[in-house]
Amino acid sequence: MSTLLVIAKEPRPGRVKTRLTPPFTPREAALLAEAALVDTLRTVAATPASRHVLVLEGAPGRWLPPGFDVVPQCAGGLDERLAAAFAGCEGPTLLIGMDTPQVTPELLTVDFADCDAYFGPAEDGGFWALGLASPDPELLRGVPMSTPTTGAVQRDRLTAAGLRVRELPALRDVDTAADAEAVAAAAPGGRFAAELARLRAVNRR
Fold this sequence. Notes:
By secondary structure, the chain is of the alpha/beta class. It has one domain (3-204): Spore Coat Polysaccharide Biosynthesis Protein SpsA, Chain A (Alpha-Beta Complex). The chain is built from 6 helices and 7 strands; from the N terminus they run E-H-E-E-H-E-H-E-E-H-E-H-H. Strands 3-2-1-4-6-5-7 form a 7-stranded mixed sheet, with helices on both faces. Helix 1 (26-45) runs antiparallel to helix 6 and helix 5 packs across helix 6. It starts with a strand and ends with a helix.
């Protein structure tokens, strides 16, 4: 079985989902971030794995379900933090973020029998998932993050290393209010969709 990693930030106002403000306040953006994290962690917990790991910036809260090892993120850019997350693992490992609460256990159940890597592109040009049969931090260091070409550069890095890459379906990250609406519509039964609906109702009053 694979190790499943989730890289995340503690959902604190002003520290997460800042592109949701406006129309949401920093506190509301943090509530949406927490809801996305809850959905993501529940899905990961429901996916069979040898180990479930939360790589966290900040402190755990009531939103953390049992069964996770929590390790702190290292200092540095996102490429360094992702590289360090893989460096702490042995054997097949799949990493995702907290921005795709619509993810399902089926998407996260991967088999490295006939490939060396999994790559999940995000619709904004980044990536939502990266799996490595043999974790190698150097595959991530130096990749420019949070750009429209991040995903393409990361995928090219995998193929340039001679890895056989299997593609996962493209998913939409929650960055903007429009993203939030689309993701909630894709997963209407989740905590994220419920929290977005609650905030919409409150703000209409």
